[in-house]
Amino acid sequence: MTGGSSVPAEGSSNPACSVCDAAASAIVECDAHVILIRHGAGLALTPRRHVARWGELSAGEQAALAARIGPAQALLETEGTNALVTLVETGGHVHLRLDPPLAAPGPLPGMPHDRPLISGGEDALHAHLRPLIDRARAVDLSVSFLMTSGVRLVLPHLRDLLDRGGELRLLTGDYLGVTEPAALRLISDLEGARRLHVFQAAQIPFHPKAWMFTFAGDGGALIVGSSNLSRSALTDGIEWNLRHVDPVDPAPLLAAREAFEALLARPEVTELTPAWIDAYEARRIAPLPTASGAPIEAPETAPTPHEVQAEALAALRATRAKGYGAGLVVLATGLGKTFLAAFDSADAARILFVAHREEILTQAMAAFRAVRPRARLGRYSGEEKDAEADIVFASVQTLARNAHLTRFDPRAFDYIVVDEFHHAAAATYRRIIDHFQPGFLLGLTATPDRSDGGDLLGLCEENLVYECDLWSGIDRGLLAPFHYFGVPDPVEYSQIPWRSGRFDEAALTEAVATQARAENALEQLAKRGGKKTIGFCVSRRHADFMADFAQARGLRAVAVHSGDTSAPRASALKALEDGDLDIVFAVDMFNEGVDVPSIDTVLMLRPTESPVIWLQQLGRGLRRSAEKTHLAVIDYIGNHRIFLTKFRTLLKLGAGDGALRLALEQLTDKLIQFPVGCEVTYDLQALDILRSLIRQPRDGEELAAFYRDFRERHGTRPTASEVQHAGFNPGRTGHAGWLGFVADMGDLSEAQRSAWTAHRALLDEIETTRMTRSYKMLVLRAMIEAGAFPGRIALTDLVERVARLARRNPQIKMDLSVDPDDAPRLRTLLMQQPLKILAETDWFQLGPGTFETTFAEGETAALTALASELVDWRLLRYLQARDVTYDMPEGTGLAEAAEGAAPAPIAPAKGLTLWHEYQRDQIAPHFGAVFNTGSWNAGIVVLKGVRAMILLVTMDKGSMSVGSHYADQFASPTRFVWQTQTSTRRDDMRGRIISGAEPGWTVHLFLRKSKLRDGRAAPFRYAGPVQFVGWEGDAPITVQWDIVEPVPQQLRELYGVTE
Which residues form the Helicase C-terminal domain (predicted)? Predict the structure, then answer.
């Protein structure tokens, strides 16, 4: 060490810190890690970095400080005294204070946090409470009243206490009615080891104000004085409180604890319960501040929907008006999808909110509490099992267990919310949804990828109600723009074990927690980052490693996770927001619910298997703030196909590698237009990595390639419905049906293969049976939901279950052709059609008052799961087609049947240019239609509202021609010969439209040579409206069309046009 030099602490930008701004005359010694400062008769050992807590120091810094204690004591002892060592974590700069025992221990000059008296105002009590709560393993709190504003200030820190296994005991009072019922409900929402009590002060005033802290080791602290739990008392009010730390003298804290125990034992004290709060609110007369001494605080402003939420709410009202009982909303992270659910369900008496992660449930409770301050909220997960609350927040893993699910009446909830979705738990979600009969089911997701969210959309009756994705949110000025930097990852991921859709965590941690990679990360951060960063890590050990590494390089950094070595979550965020930290390294903890708008950098240090999680992590920095112009995103790209998920999600790409390849080319050629203010830059090596990961499937193998990619990303195979949503037809696999394809891909379990083998004829029939109506699939779906496949179901139950399916979906309701609430007519319909037809097969029979299966039972669960998947897909495919081309009974006029089911007619083909190219999703808006992957994936799209038939013709069918041999070709530059599907007849609705027998209809022709271009879905060229010339044959029909303008010369060779 060298003495006498003026070497300020690193991070000396904090002007209020006497250590950082220590005068040269006060510095005794200093080295790379430690500064020794003289104050009074004692000394202080401080780290060079401006760090508030001992736990935030790196292991090296802690060791350096500990090593200097002996020499520093010796320095004091040479002056004839023995030193007393005290760890001081208040004042913003942690230090070890060495005091002679005869001298009064005192703080460093300018360290007001270390003085016994906390006087309020600039010396706010809240600043003292945070570090003490963070350090405590137990907190006892007694205050005469609670205000919502005060509870909100300390709630995040109390939640951290409970999350790490700590204990909280609270005693408050109802004296003069000052305590706010909303504050009581808010603190009651805390989960964990908390005991809440109230002193009923009808006969005796109740005025204590004290905080008692028990630390993890020996000792504790006491704060007692004038502050109740209100914002003014904790922040800017003039309040006097004495702070006492018990190693100096344990007697005051012991006396306070004894007095607290005595208070809890008094007869006036009772447990704080939802019923007590309701009764208190009913009898409470809100006091006048001047009469009661209560602080004058403006009431909290109730949250209101922003513009996107208002649009989504209007869309939800409209979808319910149409008769839908379920719907999916896509909102980008940061646009408030949880608040949307709270707003939309405001009139519902009982609500169930289901999610797969505890953090989502916690965030959702906070949102619903803000919107519904008087509601009773309850958790149904882990140790908490509150089934009686007005709003129940349940983990899907807990609720789906039969012992828990059967506790709830199917009609227990008016409104159900499903937040996000995990493919591995698809059957679990389905079990929950099938059990309940809510008035409305809302699905929420941040990703618009239909192939990723196919099953969630299926749970929501295939009803996409509203969508505002990341790009739209930025373009509308609701989210901050981003500057994205894709950088090459030096890790060799091919050597890390990959199981069930994820890397082995231990091996992955070993690979990423290296000096070289950490050094590279900090270099990237220095080059491209801002001032307030969240870094997402692989594991706790990785986060700790990165925090230590960054600290050793002079950065103010901490790690936040669910382990014992974590820094307190709430305090870390506050320090980051206040500029007292440079970076927080997190493991999952900050995927949800971070409200620090000034975060300006997100550092992605981990591979991400889920597009939802990647978007959530990106969204941590997308809050708008005056302190930043944009968010910097530094994202590592490694040599494993899972890294394509990031690229696909960022650029909003669909399924398949062809889209990835084309997007890379367009990105390289700077042809992609990003949202306003956004930039996307990939290091050349990162681009090479991405290119090397993209596969080129052979002709006819697009489905197999999609299937394998999905399985790699999610650790589970796609369902038939997800394949349908991705634009493929599961019925055309080139194998023995969909289940045959799955079997050939090796993805039928032993039980499923056994069920498939034993019941193959039945399953094939479900997969291929002709559907002119949805009736048969509705019956099978009802039996599956009732647990009667295999089994027996009473006809009354069957009729009610089919009616319930129809009430949730207006398409099904219209398809039934009878009122689902007219049970006798519905029963007659089912008896005369689907039940009669099914009973004529080898697998079902209709008895007196019952309908049952006749096939042998075996591998029941596996058989039911396979049948359920097929039924869901058949219903999806049928309803997608019917959404565009309803099958009408003979003699029913099309306009009459479609009345009220489609938008008012508009001029067709608005804005289309002859012979220009359009992707499928670009065609729909020109006809006033909403694009739907399933409907618009067909070769014929019939739009009833505008009386337009759209022909989407691929001339070289290639792999699309499995099971069909359509002949489509130009006979001349103005004559096109086209063949219908084999199901089309001259006298059916499509035939009459084609021939012009249905008045007022137009037919529009779109052409492309082949399905793919450069591995991606090829666009269609618009050939214009066509005129019927003649036809021949029937089922199929060969039709001749005349086009408006001859095929352009430059396209004739491509389309094989002869003169």
Answer: 517-688
Give domain limits for the chain. 2-114, 117-292, 307-468, 482-492+501-693, 734-884, 902-1055
Tell me how far apart the alpha carbons of residues 237 and 149 are, in angstroms, rounded to a whole number.
13
Checking DSSP bridges between strand 377-381 and strand 384-385, what pairing results, if any? Answer: antiparallel
Mean pLDDT by 10 residues, the chain (1059 residues): 43 54 68 74 80 77 78 62 64 74 40 68 87 90 92 92 92 90 92 93 88 83 91 89 75 90 94 93 76 60 90 93 90 91 95 90 91 92 87 92 90 93 71 90 79 66 86 91 96 89 90 94 94 94 93 88 85 88 85 74 91 87 90 95 90 76 84 89 94 76 81 83 80 82 92 93 92 92 92 95 90 88 94 93 93 87 93 86 41 28 40 85 81 74 86 71 55 89 78 86 91 76 91 83 89 83
CA pair distance 426, 552, nearest whole angstrom: 45
Whole-number pLDDT of residue 497: 92
Residue 215 CB-density burial (10 A; 0-12 exposed, 13-18 middle, 19+ buried): middle
As a CATH number, domain 902-1055 is 2.30.280.10
Tokens of 710: 């999905």
Query: Do 569 and 160 form a contact (C-beta atoms < 8 A)?
Result: yes
**CB-based burial label for 10 (10 Å; 0-12, 13-18, 19+):** middle
Spatial distance between the Cα atoms of 415 and 408, rounded to a whole number of angstroms: 14
Asked whether the bond before 790 is cis by omega within 30 degrees of 0, the reply is yes
User: Distance between CA 931 and CA 937 in Å, rounded?
Assistant: 10
Mind giving me the DSSP string for 611-625?
HHHHHHHHHTT-S--
pLDDT at 104: 36
3-state DSSP helix/strand/coil % of the chain, to nearest 5: 40, 20, 40
SS3 111: coil
Alpha-carbon distance 763 to 870, whole Å? 8
The architecture CATH gives domain 2-114: 2-Layer Sandwich (3.30)
Sheet with 167-173: strands ordered across: 117-118, 241-245, 220-225, 209-215, 136-143, 167-173, 193-199, 269-271
Say what the pLDDT of residue 908 is: 52
Q: Is 874 exposed, middle or buried (0-12, 13-18, 19+ CB in 10 A)?
A: buried
Question: Could you tell me the sign of the dihedral formed by the alpha carbons of 805, 806, 808, 814, in that order?
Answer: positive
Could you tell me the CATH superfamily of domain 307-468?
P-loop containing nucleotide triphosphate hydrolases (3.40.50.300)
CA nearest neighbour of 1008 among 971, 1055, 969, 1041? 1055
Nearest to 1020, CA basis, from 1030, 1011, 1032: 1011
Q: Which tokens go with 425?
A: 């738990």
* Topology (CATH level 3) of domain 117-292: Endonuclease; Chain A (3.30.870)
Does 1036 sit behind a cis peptide bond, omega within 30 degrees of 0 on the bond before it?
Answer: yes
CA 1009, 1011, 1015 angle in degrees (round to 5)? 115
Give the rounded distance of the alpha carbon of 35 from its chain centre: 46
pTM: 0.71
Residue with tokens 């927040």: 393
Structure tokens at 627: 């302190």
* Number of other CB atoms surrounding residue 494 within 10 Å: 9
DSSP assignment of 962-992: TT-----EEEETTEEEEE--TT--TTSHHHH
Q: Residue 1044 and residue 1059: Cα distance in Å, rounded?
A: 16
Yes or no: say if 828 and 345 are a contact pair by the CB < 8 Å rule: no
Q: What is the third-level CATH fold of 482-492+501-693?
A: Rossmann fold (3.40.50)
Residues composing the chain: 1059
For the chain, how big is the Rg over CA atoms in Å?
Answer: 34
